């Protein structure tokens, strides 16, 4: 029988953060991200304006296209502590 590391056990028991709440909180802490987030996400419903998001990404030179015509962020989408930490590091947090 192998022993689980505490981090592995925590990630199985409490998998992390609801994505919508996490991004909403980040938007309230970082004005640059907040401006973008609030432009493409309805803060009440989590509905993402996919066309606007794709347009903004392409304006930044990413050359992306949508794979879905609509998308809704929710806390049913869960990210791990590790992923949350990585996202926060992009913003120097």
Written overview of the protein:
It contains five helices and four strands. The chain has helices at residues 6-13, 19-29, 31-40, 50-59, 81-90; strands spanning 17-18, 47-48, 71-72, 78-79. The N and C termini lie far apart (38 Å). With 93 residues, the protein is mostly helical. 53% of the residues lie in helices and 9% in strands.
List keywords for this structure.
single chain, mainly alpha, 9% strand, globular
Characterize the overall form: globular
Helix content: 40-55%
* First-to-last CA distance: 38 Å
Largest beta sheet: what is the strand line-up?
A: 1-4
Mean pLDDT: 88
Portion in strands: 5-15%
Report low-confidence residues grouped into runs of 5 or more: none
The major beta sheet can be summarized as: 2 strands, antiparallel
Helix/strand-derived category reads: mainly alpha
Radius of gyration: 16 Å
Number of strands: 4
In short:
With 93 residues, the protein is mostly helical.
List the helices and strands and how they pair.
Layout: H1 6-13, E1 17-18, H2 19-29, H3 31-40, E2 47-48, H4 50-59, E3 71-72, E4 78-79, H5 81-90
Antiparallel strand pairs: 1-4, 2-3
Helix pairs in contact: 2-3
């Amino acid at each position: 029988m192998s022993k689980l590391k505490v981090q592995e056990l925590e990630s199985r028991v409490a998998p992390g953060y609801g994505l919508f709440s996490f991004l909403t909180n980040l938007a309230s802490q970082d004005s640059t991200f907040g401006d973008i987030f609030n432009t493409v996400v309805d803060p009440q419903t989590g509905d993402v304006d996919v066309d606007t998001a794709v347009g903004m990404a392409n304006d930044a030179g990413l050359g992306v296209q949508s794979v879905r015509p609509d998308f809704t962020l929710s806390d049913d989408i869960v990210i791990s502590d590790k992923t949350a930490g990585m996202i926060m590091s992009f913003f120097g947090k």
